[in-house]
Amino acid sequence: MYMDQNKIPKATAKRLPLYYRFLNSLHLQGKTRVSSKELSESVKVDSATIRRDFSYFGALGKKGYGYNVEYLLNFFRKTLDQDEITKVALIGVGNLGTAFLHYNFTKNNNTKIEMAFDTDPGKVDHNIGGVPVYHIDDLEKYIGNVSAAILTVPAHAAQAITDRLVECGIAGILNFTPARIAVPSNIRVHHIDLAIELQSLVYFLKHY
Amino acid sequence: MYMDQNKIPKATAKRLPLYYRFLNSLHLQGKTRVSSKELSESVKVDSATIRRDFSYFGALGKKGYGYNVEYLLNFFRKTLDQDEITKVALIGVGNLGTAFLHYNFTKNNNTKIEMAFDTDPGKVDHNIGGVPVYHIDDLEKYIGNVSAAILTVPAHAAQAITDRLVECGIAGILNFTPARIAVPSNIRVHHIDLAIELQSLVYFLKHY
DNA sequence: TGTGAAAGTATCATATCGTAACAATTCAAG
DNA sequence: CTTGAATTGTTACGATATGATACTTTCACA
User: Fold this and answer.
1) Read out DSSP for A46-107?
2) CB contact, 8 Å: B65 with chain A?
């Protein structure tokens, strides 16, 4: 489980969940085979790129035939550890945080939001989307062996909470705050900045 | 305004809003100068990359001194068209959509969410975060010369609404639905898939 | 006036991407 | 059984981006 295929490009790794989800829906539709060309049209990734992505894992398809949906799906299930659910905590139950809580992640995913934290007494000790909300002061008490955190708190609180998460042994953080947080090098942070995404889109509209 | 500097790499263009915002906060702190090295530590981008990014726009700094924060800020304000506000519409006032409405974009940004659309009678004709919410049926009536749309609707509605937006002459779409939407080639789509972001983070945790 | 700091620029190695091409292989039709 | 069409797996190539390193130039400041 802890890798030999380290050679897989990051860009490929990012596409794997996308492939998986689409294969899943094909499977539900009852399709048994699919070609890289069909996949390409659906997920909007070049067909040669798809074939190369797949080939990092060996020969998964059959020439002149395509890929067997079920076989491919099973393969990805294992590779993406779809069976082994990763526990996630959500920090900050504002609008964005609530959106996550209502998102049904477990449907196609190997992740589960186990708990959420906030300071708002109107939210603490409630259940939102089936997830218990605790007070942020009790972070250390409840977090247990959660391995990743979604950070949807106000920017000014980001670093302080990050430090506490790190102290609790968190392995990864999905940071939605505009703040650039500092962490030890062994902790992985993915940063998604909604304002920048919008501004960047606008820049491209005007200049390209 | 409509480009001669088309040579700027996309990767650089994506970093510009980030630079801008950070310079802005430096300015508010009263700092008058900054070096590429300082910037590098704050925005987590290699200092040489920053210097190269800046140099696409000419000589903005002074050797042996650094960059004048105010000068640089003014320059970016012009380059990023910070003065000329781009109108944006938000489609789908769920949790995620509401998060956008409460986000104070105009503070550091050249974009303004002018209106929102939804089907929920409890939201239509209300103001949320100072933004008027109209019924999605009236999209064509109100949208006017809005140039970009934020799509935060259920996945199954994504393509139909996209088609209508395209018909209305929208130039860009920020797509937060899991659906991969099809658009004419002259329309720019940036796709952010929250589930995939989370799953991708988890994959990296396990395999790298 | 001298010196140190930092920009601007160039170069190199590495990674990724899209595109194209091609041989090998397989299915399916006849 | 044979043939042909389809599609993979793989390779090659050019374009783009990145991080590193290093060099020269120029400016600020002591």
Assistant:
1) -HHHHHHHHHTT---SBTTTBEEHHHHHHHHHHHTTSSSPEEEEEE--SHHHHHHHHS-GGG
2) no
